[in-house]
Amino acid sequence: MTRWLDPTSVDIPDSLVDLGLIPLAKQILVRRGISDIATAKAFLDPNEYTPTDGWEMPDLRTAVDRVNQAILKSESICVWGDFDVDGQTSTALLVQTLRAIGADVHWHIPVRATESHGIKIPYLKEVIDNGAELIVTCDTGVSETEAIDYANSRGVDVVITDHHDLPPKLPNAVAVVNSKRLPEEHPLSTLPGVGVAYLLAQKLLEGTNHVSRFTHHALLDLVALGITADVADLHGDARYLLQRGLIELRQTQRIGLQTLYELAGINPLTINEGDIGFGIAPRMNAIGRLGDANIMVDFLTTKNPAQARVIATQLEGLNTQRRLLTSQIYQAAEAQIRDNPALKETAALVLAQKDWPAGVIGITASRLGERYHKPVILLSVGEDGKARGSARSVAGIHITEAIAAQKDILHGFGGHPMAAGMALDADEITSFRRRISRTITQQLGTEKPPEATLLIDAWLPLNDLSLDLSAELTKLAPFGPRNPSLILASRNLTLSHFAKIGKNKEHLRLTVKDSQDNAQSILWWNAADEELPTKGSRFDLAFKMRTGEFRGAPQLTLEMVDFRVTEEVEKVESREEREVYKLQAASGEFASLQEAGVQVFVEGKSEIKGKNRYQLKKAAELAIYTSPPGQSELRAMLEKVKPEKVYIIGIDPLAFTPKEFLTHLAGLVKYTLAKKDGRTEISTLAAVTAQREATIRLGLEWLAAGGQVQVVVEDDDICLSKPSGAIEKYAQADLFLAIKGLLAEIDAYRKHFHIADAKELINY
Question: In the chain, which residues fall in CATH 1.10.10.580?
Fold first, then answer.
C-alpha cells in the first residue's frame, strides 16, 4: 500500500513575487528548496545559469593533453563505449569531436550478448592488435583494472571518462575523468557518461591547436539524450546541459534523429524529456539490448539519408520486439509469484528462469520493483549453468553494496545504488536469494523496510485541469531526479468507463467523473490487467498532466499514477421529501414570497433581485426563479440551502448560440481587463451568464487560442492579460465544437426542467 503525502503549506517569499509563475508553481519551487530569486532564475532559464568550468573535473587537463599528443603524433585512437543510450551518445560525441580536430579515430561498443558491459580483455586484445595506440573510454572503465593493466603491458595508454561508482583503488590509467570523484553537491558531480565525455570534447574543441568546423554546442543534442536516458540527477550542470540540449534537439541537423522523430511520431518543435524517455531512448536502447549498437555511431553522425532510414527502421523493429519480450517476461514473473507467494515475503524479490533475454530483464525488474516496492533481481539461466541477472532497487537500499556482500558466490558484479548486474552459478540461486535478503535486512538495521510513498504536489478539481495550467506548470521542466514530475490529485471521483487500448491492448483509457459530473480521460500505461475501482465506488486519483498533440492541435493528457478508494459503495442519504410548488412568475404568490423574504435563486439578465448559486445560504425555503444550467448545479444548490420547501418558477435565462455566447464572454473579458485589472472568478462569469463552469472554461480557452487574451486559472481565480497574438486555429475549432455541445446540453436540460414532474425533479 502506497502512503500519499499531502503537499506542505509554504509561504512564497517576497523575492519570488515577480518571478512570472502562477502561485502554484511558486509553491512547488519553494517546496523543492528554491526560495531565492537568483536560484529560481537559474533553475528556470539556462541563460541565467553560470556553467561550471570543466577544468574542475579531476584529471581532465591530463586527458586533454594526452589526446592532443596522440593527434600530434598521428596515433590511432579507439573510443571504447557502452551499448546503452548514455554509452552510444558518449561514443558518437567523442568520435565526432576527434574527427573534427583531425584524429585518426575508431570505436568499439561491446555487444551485450557476447561481451556484456565493460572492457573484456579478449576484445581489447583484438582492438590493440588492429593498431589502437590510445584507448579513450566513455561511460565505462573505472572498474576495469585488469583490462587497463593489460593495455599498459602492450604499451597502450588509457584515458578513462566515466561516471560509475569508484572502486577502492582507481585503475592505472593516464587519466581517470569521473564525475564521482567530485564532492556530492558539486555542480558537475551528477553528470552521466555523456556529460563527462562532453567536458573532454569541449576542452578539445576550445584548444588553440585545432580548427573545427563546429563548436561544442552542436554536441548538446547528444548530451540531452544521454542525460535523460541515464536518468541522471538534474542538479547543477546536468540540468543546465539538458535544458540547452533540448533546444538543440528541437533544431538538430542529425539526419538520423530527424528520421527517428518521423518514425516515432515526435514533433521536433516541442520535444521534451518525456519524448526522449518514452519515445527516443527505448528505440535506441533496443539495439543495445537485442543487437549490435556499434552502428549507432554511424546513425548519429551520418549525412546519408538512406543510411539513416535503414538504421531507424531497424530500431523500430527491435523496439517492437523488445516490448513483446518485456511483456512475456513480466507475465512469467507474475506467474512465478502467484505459484509461490512466499517469494514476496523476502526483502528482495529474486526470480529466475531459463533463457530469459538478458537485454530486457532489467526493464522488467524495474516494473516489478514499482509494483512490489522492493528490490527486484531477475536472473536468466543459460545452457552453461550460469545465471546472469539485472537488479533494480528502491529508495533507501544500495543494491550494489548488498550484492557485493555475496561476492564469494558470484562470478562478477557491478552497478549503482539503484541498479546492478551480476553472474553466478544457477545452483547458487536459492542461497543467493536467502543471503541477499538477509543483507538488505541488516542494511536497514532497526529501520522498517522503506515505505512506498507518493508526494502530492497539488489537489485540484477536474474542472481546473486545462492546457493553460499544463503550460504554466511545464515551466518547471525538465523533470527527472531531484526535480520529479509533478503529481497532481483529485478527490471523490467515480469510474464512468474504461477501455483497453494499444497495439496489444496493454494500456487502459479511463473516464472519471466528479460529483459535479465533470469528466476527464485518463491514460494508465501497462495496466491492462490491473484492478480497477468497482462500479459506484468513490476514489481519489493521482496523476501526471502534460500537453500532447492530436491531429496537430494541443491536447491535455492525464496519466494515471495511483488511486485510493475512499468509499466502496455509493452512499445514499435517506431524507424526507421536500415540499415542492410550481408558481407563475407574475403570480401574486411569487410576489408574496418576495415580500416574506424567501431566498430567491436568479442568474443571468433579470429584473428580479436574488442570489446566484454561489451566494445561496442555508434556509427553510427556496424559490428557483431561473432554471439552473444542469442537474448537478441544481443538486449542489439544494445541498447548500437544504430547504424544506421549494418553489419553482423556472424562467429561462437568455439562450445563447455558440457565437453569441463567445461574443458575450469576450465582452466580459474586455470589461474585466479595463475595470478589474484582469482579475475575476470562474464562478462570477458562470453566474452572470447562467452557464456551467465548464462552459466558461472552454470559452476562455477558445478566446486564448484565438489570440484575444491570455488566461491563467488557479482554482476559481482567473488572471487575464493582454493577448500574445498567437492563434491556434485547430484548437479553436475543437473548442468551438465542445462549446456548442455544452450549450445544447444546457438548453435541453432547461426544456426538461419545465416539463418534468416538479417533485421528482427536486427530490431525485
Answer: 658-752
Has residue 215 got a pLDDT over 90? no
Fold of 340-451: Diaminopimelate Epimerase; Chain A, domain 1 (3.10.310)
**What confidence tens digit (pLDDT) does each residue in 591-606 have?**
888 888 889 989 988 8
**Pick among 1.10.150.130, 3.30.420.40, 1.10.10.580, 2.60.40.2340: CATH of 658-752:** 1.10.10.580
Mean of pLDDT values over 150-165: 96
Reported pTM: 0.71
DSSP secondary structure of 280-298: IHHHHHHHHHHS-TTHHHH
As a whole number of angstroms, the distance between CA 276 and CA 452 comes to: 27
What architecture does CATH give domain 54-317?
Alpha-Beta Complex (3.90)
Burial of residue 344, with CB atoms counted within 10 A of its CB: 0-12 exposed, 13-18 middle, 19 or more buried = exposed
How distant, in Å, are the alpha carbons of 195, 281, 485, 729, 756 from that of 90?
Answer: 8, 14, 26, 42, 71
Query: Which of 72-86, 142-156, 660-674 shows the lowest per-residue confidence on average (mean pLDDT)?
Result: 660-674
Arithmetic mean of pLDDT, 514-518? 91
CA dist 470 and 467 (Å) reads 5
Out of 143-152, 313-322, 492-501, 576-585, give the one with best mean pLDDT: 143-152
Distance CA 759, CA 647 (A): 10
Q: Are 305 and 257 in contact (CB under 8 A)?
A: no
Q: What is the pLDDT of residue 573?
A: 45
Binned at pLDDT 50, 70 and 90, residue 576 comes out as low
* CA–CA–CA angle 207, 236, 29 (5° rounding): 150
C-alpha–C-alpha distance, residues 524 and 508, integer Å: 5
What DSSP letter does each residue of 323-338 carry, written as one string?
HHHHHHHHHHHHHHHH
C-alpha span between 755 and 758 (Å, rounded): 8
pLDDT of residue 572: 42
Tally the C-alpha atoms within 13 A of residue 89's C-alpha that lie toward its C-beta. 29
